[in-house]
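Student: Send me a single protein entry containing the residue sequence and its fold in token form, directly below this note:

Tutor:
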Amino acid sequence: MTYTYDDQNIFAKILRGEIPNDTVLETEHTLAFRDIAPKAPEHVLVIPKGAYVALDHFCAEASDAEIVDFHRTVAEVCKMTGASPGEGGEGYRGITNAGENGVQEVPHYHLHILAGRPLGPMLLMR
């Protein structure tokens, strides 16, 4: 895999404490925080603390401990925000973007968890 990680991206700066964030949950390998421009009443970003650019990069190169911690953090955030259908919530959407066609804005792997209202169709057909 030939991803090059830019350690000056905004999420790397957040992880180093150079930029503040509204932390929802932090674990050994993962940080979850509120999006500064939310697209739903609940909009949380979940990022690994490791230097991964996209989902496939994370899946291919992260340790088992990082992968498990990330996904367990996602589950806890869904529970904490009241979105998890398994906890009586009305549901959520998890979105990750990769590369130019995926409209990735920050070159650090991140998962958006959106909830708190009906979210409409997944993609608009063109």
In short: The chain has a mean pLDDT of 96. The radius of gyration is 14 Å. The first strand starts at residue 23 and ends at 26. The chain has three helices and five strands.
